[in-house]
Amino acid sequence: MLPLLLVVLLGVSLSHWLLVPLVHLATPIFGLDWLGWLLLALGLWLFAGA
């Protein structure tokens, strides 16, 4: 029973250490704060022409 508990504890610890930084990195991407700047850049590029 103790080895199973240690494996579960190790798995939870590793997932926490790996997933929390990824969530902090992905939050601004999924927040769509950058969408306005992207649309502005796209509009300028379209109106600039060749």
Strand content is under 5%
**Gyration radius from CA atoms, angstroms:** 21 Å
Measure the end-to-end span. Answer: 70 Å
Overall 3D shape: rod-shaped
Order of helices and strands: HH
Poorly predicted runs of 5 or more residues: none
Mean pLDDT: 87
Classify the secondary structure makeup into a structural class: mainly alpha
* Biggest pleated sheet: none
Proportion in helices:
over 70%
Strands, count: 0
Per DSSP, the total helix count is 2
Structural key phrases:
50 residues, single chain, 88% helix
Summarize this structure briefly.
The chain is mainly alpha-helical and 50 residues long.
Characterization of the model:
The N and C termini lie far apart (70 Å). This protein is mainly α and 50 residues long. The mean pLDDT is 87. It contains two helices and no strands.
